[in-house]
Amino acid sequence: MARNDSNFVCQDCGHESLRWAGQCAGCGQWNTLVEAPRPNAAPAQGRRGGRAKSGEAARPVALRDVSAPAVERLLTGIEELDRVLGGGLVPGSIVLLGGSPGIGKSTLTGMALGNLVAAGRKTLYVSGEESAAQVRMRAVRLGDSALDVPVVTETSLETVLGTLEAVRPDTCVIDSIQTLNAEGMTGAPGSVGQVREAAGAILEVAKRIDCAVILVGHVTKEGAVAGPRVLEHLVDCVLLFEGERERSFRTLRALKNRFGATSEVGVFEMRGGGLVEVEDPSARFVGEASGAPGSCVLCSMEGTRPLLVEVQALVAPTEIVPPRRVANGVDRNRLAMILAVLARHGGPGLAGADVFVNVAGGVRVDEPGADLAVALAIVSAHRGEPLADPEGRPLACFGEIGLTGELRTVGHADRRLAEALKFGLAPVLGPPETERMQGLAPQATIRAALGTALARRPQEAAA
Ligand SMILES: Nc1ncnc2c1ncn2[C@@H]1O[C@H](COP(=O)(O)OP(=O)(O)OP(=O)(O)O)[C@@H](O)[C@H]1O
Ligand SMILES: [Mg+2]
After folding, report:
1. Which listed site, 10, 237, 323, 459, has its alpha carbon 20 to 30 Å from 202?
2. Nearest 5°: phi and psi at 184?
């Protein structure tokens, strides 16, 4: 009997097991199981699903007959944020905003609430991490309307729920979910049990009072939002705010969105007056692109928007075996594949060299269309030959590389091309398309693309 009073919960994934083990059977992490008292099953179920317990049969309703009042989305006034959310916050929805420390989560949410207040909405900012004075200091930086946001500094879950019910705001920010402490639960704030309990209770209240809640969450060192994966299933939308702290660019992307497209990306720049939307990020990145060896412009797609980013590579001889492969902003496995294809299909063999690849500006490109840019940047770095044309305009390209060395088509070729042409970066190297496209220099294989790219500076090749 006593044995059943507690079980062991993985602090990473929320997996529960009756016995302690060194490795979690759910996610494979080591030393993450912590003993936790079993939540008393009866009251917990009673709160969330009381009807199911009573044994009454529920009556299914045809979707056509379900009444669904047209919901008006709450516009945060930050265009990039609204776009990533799929057109603003949906009333009654829960958004999880994750990001590493100091990236600007509080700044972003503070600005959004300020704009909502200015638009006549009722807002609430719950700060569990900072004192009201500290929140005020940030608000002063963000402008006048941010100072009108009502704030409570509270870490008790029960008090927060009570405040929500009493204030009934349209939008509420909880900064952060890891600081909330549910009374009935043992375990430190931020542990899986606490976070799950807090999020579940907030979810229930938010749906009832039709309040859009933004939960701010920390990311684990592996980069997963809020550690416990349980939270990702619970919420309607998961946003990840990322970027290098030293650089001013930040990107906001949706990992999950029940009300809009994922893979939308918003680009911001951190300035003294808060986060500034970068409306034309391509212009910034192309402007910064150097025509130096190892640099190449990638026409990528970020959600529904084409984005030009600079891919940089550095190839340095090394004695270390195996040599280092460092990828920032692109997938490491993808880099390994590109190096292997290069070695077999017309490129250099780099078994004796360290290879570093970086997408400038702290942007992440998670699409196969980046392959060609990575390959060309590496070859350019290896040979020490720039890919820019004699006038110094960088080379733009896109395309997936197949294992047999062929270039494969990727989605939205027309839009990628149009974005590059906007900046005068023609001709653009890309995979062959079924129809002829203005400004595209189609290449069937990586070997052909290398030949074309390296022939852009005939006078230097001869020198
Ligand atoms: N005056 C300023 N000018 C420019 N940038 C600033 C200024 N003050 C703060 N910042 C930037 O704001 C960042 C902090 O923002 P914010 O507090 O919103 O981050 P956060 O993600 O909420 O952090 P935490 O995880 O600690 O809560 C700092 O890292 C810094 O880069
Ligand atoms: Mg913060």
Report:
1. 10
2. -70, -15
